[in-house]
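Predict the 3D structure for this chain.
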Amino acid sequence: MNWRDLDHPRAGGAERYVESLGGALIDLGHDVTLLASRLGMLQSSSTRGSGLRVVRVGRDWNHRIAVRRWFIQGMEVLAEADVVIESVNTIPYGLAQLVKPEQRCISIVHQLAGRIWEFEYGRLAGTLGPWLEKRLFSAYRNVTVVAVSQSTQRELVGLGVSRVTTVPEGIDSQIFESRTVVPKSPSPSLVFVGRLVKNKRPLDAVAAFCLVKQVYPEARLWIVGRGPLETAIRSLKIDGVVLTGFLPAPEKDRLISSSHLLLVTSVSEGWGLVVTEAASLGTLAVGYDVPGLRDSIPASNGVLCKAEPSELANAILGLLRQQELPRPVTGGVLPWKLVAQSVLRAK
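Done. Predicted structure below.
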C-alpha cells in the first residue's frame, strides 16, 4: 500500500521507493500488487513492465479508508496475500489489527512529519500534527516497522515504537553506473533539486546564494523543480538564479553533474536520495543538519551545517575556496535486491 503510484502527477521519492521495492520483490520470485489512490485520468488497474500490478483504490483524500474497507470486506487481492506492506506517508494505514493471523504486516516509514506540519500549515498544525502522529503510532508499538534511516528510527523509538529495523535506501546499480559525469562549470555553479514548497526551504538556498554571490559575482544557482514558491522566487529577480522547472532525467543529470555543489535545505527528510544521486554524478552535497540529511550527507562525504542561510553560505564558501572539492561517494545505500530481502527479514 502506498498513497500514490508513479503515474500520479504528484508522485515523489516515496513512490519511486515503493515501485523499486516491488520490482525487486518480483525479481526474487514474488507476486506483487500495489494498492494506490486513483485520479479520474488514471485507470483502475494497470501492470508495469516489471510485472508489478497497480490497483487504484479510493481517491487521495479517502485512499486509506478505502483500503481498510477492502480488508474488512475480504477483497481477494488482500485475502490471498502472504505479506502486507504499508508505506507510511505521514498518516499510517493501521492495518496490523486487520490482517489475518497467518499474514505478516510490515510498515515502512520514510520520515515523520514533525516540524513539517508547522512549516506547511502554520503554528496550530505544528502543535496538533505531532500530537496526532504520536496517537496514530501508539498502535504500532509491537508492529514490525522498517525505517529508511537512523534518524527515522530514533524518532519512531521516541514515539514508543519498539520493533524498528533500519533498512537503507535502495539504488539501481545499473542506472547509477551508466550515468555520465560531465566537467564542472567554469564559474561557481550551485544546484537545488526538489519541490518548491515551504518544508524544502528553497528560499533559504536563494538567501545563501545571495551571500555567496558577494564573493563570487559570476556564480549561478540552478533551481530544478516546481511548486507554490516558484512565483515568490521569480519575483525576487536575483541575477544568477535560474529556475528550470522539471527537467527530463538526462538533462537534470547533466546539470547536477556540471554543478559544483548540491544545496539541500529541507526541514527533514527520510534519507534524501537526491544527495546520493548527486554523489553518483560527481557532485558533493552541502545541507542542513536535520533528520535524514544528517544520515545521507555524511554518507556521501558531503558537508552539514546549522539550519541557517548564513551558515549554509559559509559552508559553500569554505568548499569553493578549496583547491579541490572533496570526492563524493555513494555511501549508505544498498542494491534493491538486498533492500527487498532485508525488508522481508525484518522482525
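The chain has a mean pLDDT of 93.
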